[in-house]
Each structure stands twice: as C-alpha cells, then as structure tokens.
Amino acid sequence: MPNLLFILMVGFGVLSLIFFILTFVAIKKRKIIGSTISLLVALLFLALATLSGTITVATKGYLALTHEETAAIVTTQPLGDKVFIANFEFPDGRRSSYRLAGDAIYVDAHILKWKPLANILGLHTAYELDRVAGRFMDIEEEIKRQRSIYLLAEKKPLNMFNLRTKYSFLEPFLDAEYGSAVFVELKKPAKFEIKVSTTGLLIREISS
Q1: Are the CB atoms for 156 and 55 separated by under 8 Å?
Q2: 119-168 pLDDT per residue, tens
Q3: Which residues lie closer than 8 Å to 159 by C-beta, 6 or more apart?
Q4: How many CB atoms lie within 10 A of CB 131?
Q5: Spatial separation of the C-alpha atoms in residues 208 and 205, rounded to whole Å
Q6: Cβ distance 125 to 198 under 8 Å?
Q7: Which of 108, 118, 176, 183 allows an S-S link to 113, with CB 3.0 to 4.6 Å?
Q8: What is the 3-state secondary structure (H, E, C) of the chain?
C-alpha cells in the first residue's frame, strides 16, 4: 500500500509530540487555556497518527487492483480417489502446494473498495486471496467426507477486512468490503488462471 499513509503517520506523530511538549510548557507557566488547547490539538494529531498507522498495518498484504489482475496460476494434478495436488504460483514469484480432497478446487478472496476520500491518500480497490479448499460436487460427500482447507492470506496483527466489520469509524473511508469465491470441477490434470476484477474473482483454464 502507498507510502503516503506511513508518511502521514510519522508526520501526525511528530506534530502530536510537539503539541504535548507545548502542553507541558504551558502547564509550567500556568497557562490553563493555552495548555488545554495544546492538549486537545496533541490528542487530535495522535488520533490521526493512530488511524494512519492502523490502516497501514491492516492493509499489509493487500494488492492494488486496477482492472483485472492475475492473482495466481494454479496447476492441478489428480492423485486418485478424489484427492489432488494444487500448485500455486503467485505474481511475486512465491510458490506453494496443497493436498486437497474433493473433485473441485475452491478459492476465495477479500476485496476492499475505498471511497474518494481514501483515494486522495492513494488507497484504491485492493484484494487479498484468503483460502483454498477442496470441494465435493455431491452435497452428501461435502457433508460426510473430511474437508481440506488452507490459508493463502498473510497472517497479520490487524486485517482491514475484519476491522471494517467491527468499527464504524472506518465507514467514511471504505465504500465496500466483501468476499468473492470461485470453484471449478477437476476431471484431469489442468492449469488455471485465477483473476480478480472489480466485480470479484474469475477462474479460466489455460493451456499448459
């Protein structure tokens, strides 16, 4: 995410520190009104620094989305008895493999759509792949057979997707936050391209 938020966090933090110092100076000089105003301004800048820092940390791992982006290339290899290996290759070069149970692969993602106020700060629609799982096409098998599911998202102390559902103060910044998912049945070894657009996830089979 943009460095502008980090710069704002540092800037507001410095301003908050300056006004806290001015508050102590005013208190020593017994200037009640001056110290009160300085304290309120210091608290305001501290709140703005905290907000900037929270957004910076909570959006770590999310990738900017312009129109339609490739989120991953997935190669699947059936192992028999409705078990298969899914090999993921991500745009940043990372690779990972998952052993999944089912006759379909399922992938979901978190998508964040920011309001114009946040766009000014450099925040635009962003996404993060969240989970991959095996999926049984037959509902009875889906209920009775053992599920297999893995985390694709980075573990982080804060997640903007979760914060927005809990705290209303983020409402002026986030226009929408929603989940999107795709799944496709596997009948043979195949290679897929998972794409994310402003409307959600897409999955297309591509030639090897």
Answers
A1: no
A2: 666 676 778 899 999 999 999 999 999 889 999 988 777 766 677 667 67
A3: 58, 110, 153
A4: 16
A5: 9
A6: yes
A7: 176
A8: CCHHHHHHHHHHHHHHHHHHHHHHHHHHCCCHHHHHHHHHHHHHHHHHHHHHHHHHHHCCCCEECCCEEEEEEEEEEECCCCEEEEEEECCCCCEEEEEEECCEEEEEEEEEEECHHHHHCCCCCEEEEEEEEEECCCHHHHHHCCCCEEECCCCCCCCHHHHHHHCHHHCCCEEEEEEEEEEEECCCCEEEEEEEECCEEEEEEECC
Name the token pair of 83. Answer: 């078990």
> In sequence order, which residues have a C-beta less than 8 Å from that of residue 32 and are 6 or more positions away?
none
pTM: 0.63
Residue indicated by tokens 């745009």: 91
Residue type, 46: L
* Residue-level length of the chain: 208
Residue given tokens 């903007």 in the structure block: 160
Tokens, residue 12: 């507001």
Positive or negative: CA dihedral 146, 180, 92, 152 = negative
State which amino acid sits at residue 85. I
